[in-house]
Each structure stands twice: as C-alpha cells, then as structure tokens.
Design goal:
The chain is about 40% helix and about 15% strand. By secondary structure, it is α/β, with parallel strands linked by helices. It has a single domain, classed as TIM Barrel (Alpha-Beta Barrel). It has an eight-stranded parallel sheet. Strands 1-12 form a two-stranded antiparallel sheet. A two-stranded antiparallel ribbon has the order 2-3. The longest helix has about 30 residues. The protein is globular. It binds ligand FNR. The site of ligand FNR has 23 residues, from α2.
Length: about 350
C-alpha cells in the first residue's frame, strides 16, 4: 500500500466541492508564503549518529503539561463541517485515536461539548473582539468543556485578501452551522464583535487573568514580539504565518523558529506550524527548539477524504515515519532531538 499522505491534496480536490477545496488550499494574494513553507523545512540537513541503542523509540512529548503520544498536533482551521458532515467532532475522533492534540478554531461548526465528548485533548483558539467582553462567552464555554489552553491568534487585525477563481465561493455554500456553533445567539450583529485591530500585550495578560488558562500567542515570527509575549505572561508562543494566509511575503516559519527559541525558549514553550508535512519536518522543528509542531491543511484533507479514520491514518503513518527517522538518526526519543543533530 502506498503512503496515505502522498496525493492527499489531489484526492481532496477530487472529492470536495471546488469552492471548499479552494478555500482550504489558498494563501493570501499571490500565495508566496504558502508555497514557500515546506521548502524551508526541506533545506535542513542532518548528521545521523551511530552506535546508539535505538531498540526502543519514544515519540512522547509534553505540551503545557499534557503528554502527547503523537507529536503531530493539529492547528485550528475554520469550518470543518464544510468538508465532513460531523466536522470538528469527526476530526476530534481521529486525533483522539492517534493520541494527538486538537486546537479548535473559534469558527467551529461543532460545539466544544461535542468535541470534548470524543475524549480528545483540546485547546480553544480565539480572535479577540474589538469589544473585549464579546469574546468571553466563547472562552468560558471552552473552559467549561475542558479546554486546557487558550490560543490567541495575533496575526489577524484584518483577514488577508485571497483571490477566488470563477464560480461560487465557500461563503456562497456555507450554512450558518459551519462556523458559529460556540457563539451565543446574535453574535456578529454588533460592530464590537469584529476582530480587534488594537491588540497589545495587555490583552495577553487580560486573557490569562480572565480565563485562568495558559495563553498561547499564535502568529509570532519575530524574537522581539516573542519577548513581549513572554513578558505579558504568555505560557507559549506559536511561530506561524497563518499558513501564508495573512501577510503574503511573510518569512517561512522554519526560518524564524530558531531566533524565537533563542530569545524566549528558556522561559516559555515554543511551537511552530506552516508547511509541516513529514516526520523529517517535525524532527527539524524539535531540533530547532520547538516543543510541538502543528499541521493545518493535511488533517482537513484527510478528514474530507476518509473522515475520522483518515485523520487517524495520517497521524499514525507520520508516527511510523518518525520512529524510523529517530532510529536512523541514532536518537531513541523525540525529547533528545537537539541542534546537535543538524548539519550546518
Ligand atoms: C487556518 N488557520 C487558522 N488559524 C487560526 O488561528 N484560526 C482559524 O480559524 C484558522 N483557520 C484556517 C482556515 C484554513 C482553511 C487554513 C488553511 C488555515 C491557520 C492554521 O491554524 C495554521 O496556522 C496553518 O494552516 C498552518 O499551515 P499548514 O500546515 O496549513 O501549511
């Protein structure tokens, strides 16, 4: 049997409505950053070790105190009910079966309660609203359902422009149930419900205080911003350019990670996403100092083509490939992957 991940995007293109597939695949503007993301991971080379006992290989990792059996975590993506009738709940089942972590988008078509009922470990992503309290019902609901952290997406004062082709867009197809399952009735009708354009470190402090959950700031590319997050009380910073969907031309995350780790890696956890597609990319992320690597689009394509089983299969296949990679690198556990493995 071939590799499940190979051709996954093409299979998703075959089964999903064109407007839905386009929405998930596209980057902003010219898709420069989207198309460069994976290549930046590919550039790294390794110096494998020999004469090491790799009879047992340990893939476990810890994020914010939670142990993950599978280190391929799943980034928040909106509107998963566009690709599967059970949307985020089906995604959660696959992730739970694989022993990974799910970050639930604030634009989810499934409730936190239904997602939690699958047993998945999950965090809740939020876009802070112009009127700050307007985003609190979502967060209180997430916390009550068992979310272990809040992910503040900081790179979206405005949604990056995407060029749609001919024909209907996902917004023409979208039912109201695709994106707003966790908001109170009437959400979105007030100007205060729009995304904040004046986010600052004080919002990180405020979220930590109000939710009493660890706050992860997502969308950080610069060491100076990572420093500001750490000083504001963030528990982690997440190096991301939003899958190339915000500023087109933003640097590849694989090229930004190391400077962020150098600045704050001793104080807070550092995560990364963007173009992560193989076990080798995850090893690279850990070698550069990340404690978790997330994927956005591939799990959605797996969900769209084969439902929960597809998500589980994608993550399981990557686990198998990671075991092989660590054996060949002479490294018996993911926790022992360091820059010393990289050839520079
Ligand atoms: C996203 N992303 C995203 N991020 C976020 O914080 N909240 C969200 O609701 C969404 N929605 C969303 C929708 C779609 C269709 C995509 C492709 C992405 C960004 C996402 O969390 C992640 O940063 C990137 O997808 C990672 O890049 P890869 O793995 O898709 O290359």
């Amino acid at each position: 049997m071939g590799r499940f991940a190979d051709g996954l995007e093409e299979r998703a293109a075959d089964v999903l409505p064109e407007a839905v597939f386009r929405y998930f695949r596209q980057g902003s503007r010219d898709s420069t950053s989207t198309s460069e993301a994976t290549a930046a991971w590919e550039r790294h080379r390794f110096l494998p070790q020999v004469l090491r006992d790799v009879t047992e290989v340990d893939l476990r990792s810890t994020v914010l105190g939670a142990e993950l059996a599978c280190p391929f975590a799943v980034a928040p993506t909106a509107m998963q009910r566009a690709v599967h009738p059970e949307g985020e709940v089906a995604m959660a089942r696959g992730i739970a079966a694989a022993g990974s972590l799910m970050v639930v988008s604030s634009n989810s078509g499934s409730t936190f309660e239904d997602i939690a009922a699958t047993g998945v470990t999950f965090w809740a992503q939020v876009y802070v609203t112009a009127d700050r309290p307007a985003c609190l019902p979502l967060l209180h609901r997430a916390a009550a359902a068992g979310a272990r952290a809040v992910v503040l997406t900081a790179d979206t004062p405005v949604v990056g422009t995407k060029h749609d082709g001919e024909g209907p867009t996902i917004w023409d197809l979208a039912g109201p149930g695709w994106s707003h399952a966790n908001f109170p009735d009437g959400y979105g009708s007030s100007p205060g419900d729009a995304k904040a354009t004046d986010l600052g470190p004080q919002d990180v402090e405020w979220l930590a205080r109000t939710t009493r959950l660890p706050v992860v700031v997502k969308g950080v590319l610069r060491a100076d911003d990572a420093r500001r997050c750490a000083e504001a009380g963030a528990a982690a910073v997440w190096v991301s350019n939003h899958g190339g969907r915000q500023f087109d031309g933003a640097a590849a995350t694989a090229d930004c990670l190391e400077a962020v780790v150098a600045e704050v890696g001793d104080e807070v956890e550092v995560y990364v996403d963007g173009g992560v597609r193989t076990a080798r990319h995850v090893v690279t992320a850990h070698a550069l100092g990340a404690s978790a690597a997330f994927m956005g689009r591939p799990p959605v394509y797996a969900l769209g083509t084969e439902g929960s089983a597809g998500v589980e299969r994608l993550l399981g296949e990557l686990d198998d490939e990671l075991t092989e990679a660590l054996m060949l690198l002479g490294c018996p556990s993911l926790g022992r992957v360091t820059t010393a493995l990289l050839s520079r």
